[in-house]
Design goal:
The protein is mainly alpha-helical. Helix content is about 45%, strand content about 5%. The protein has one domain. It contains 5 helices and 2 strands, in the order αααββαα. The protein has a two-stranded antiparallel ribbon with strand order 1-2. It is elongated, with a radius of gyration of 21 Å. The protein starts with 10 loop residues before the first helix and ends in an 18-residue tail after the last helix. The relative contact order is 0.12. It comes from Marinobacter shengliensis.
Length: about 150
C-alpha cells in the first residue's frame, strides 16, 4: 500500500504550535488531560518511568487517559533499551564468535538499535525531542507586541 502524503496533525498539536484555524481544523474528540493508570501487570522499571514522565506530559497537555497504550509501548521500549545497553558495557560484549570462530556483531547490538528506534519514535509522538518540541507553542507564548506598528 502506497503512502498518501504526510500524516494528519491532531488539532491539539496545532493549538500548541499556534497554527490552529477554526474554519479548517477541529480539536478532535475532547479528552481530559490526566495521567492514565499504569497497567497493574507492568514491570517495576516501567512503573518508575511512568511516575516520572506521566505527570510531565500531563502538565504539558500532551497526555490523557486514552494514551495508556502508547505511553506503555514507549516506556516498555525505553526500559528494554536500558537493559540491553547495560548488558553491552564493553566492546567485547558487543562481539560474538560464529561457530567457525569469526567475530561478528552481537545480536544484543541489533536489539539495542531496534529499541533505540522505537524509543525515538515514541519520543517524537510525545514531544520529547528538541525537533518535536520546537514545533509546539508554549501556552504562555503570545504574539509579540509591535507597539502599535501592527496596524501599518
Amino acid at each position: 500500500m502506497a503512502k498518501r502524503g504526510r500524516p494528519a496533525i491532531p488539532g491539539q498539536v496545532k493549538v500548541l504550535q499556534g497554527n490552529f484555524r477554526k474554519d479548517r481544523d477541529s480539536h478532535g474528540p475532547s479528552v481530559d488531560i490526566e495521567v492514565p493508570e499504569c497497567p497493574k501487570d507492568a514491570p517495576d522499571a516501567i512503573r518508575i518511568a511512568w511516575k516520572k514522565i506521566g505527570p510531565v506530559l500531563a502538565q504539558q497537555g500532551l497526555l490523557s487517559k486514552c494514551d495508556q497504550i502508547p505511553l506503555f509501548a514507549y516506556l516498555d521500549s525505553y526500559t528494554k533499551f536500558k537493559m540491553v545497553t547495560k548488558a553491552l558495557e564493553t566492546v567485547e560484549d558487543m562481539l560474538e564468535a560464529t561457530p567457525n570462530g569469526y567475530q561478528q556483531m552481537s545480536q544484543l547490538v541489533h536489539l539495542r538499535g531496534k529499541y533505540w528506534k522505537e524509543v525515538m519514535d515514541g519520543a517524537k509522538e510525545f514531544g520529547h525531542t528538541p525537533a518535536s518540541r520546537s514545533s509546539l507553542k508554549a501556552p504562555n507564548q503570545g504574539q509579540f507586541d509591535f507597539g502599535g506598528f501592527e496596524d501599518i
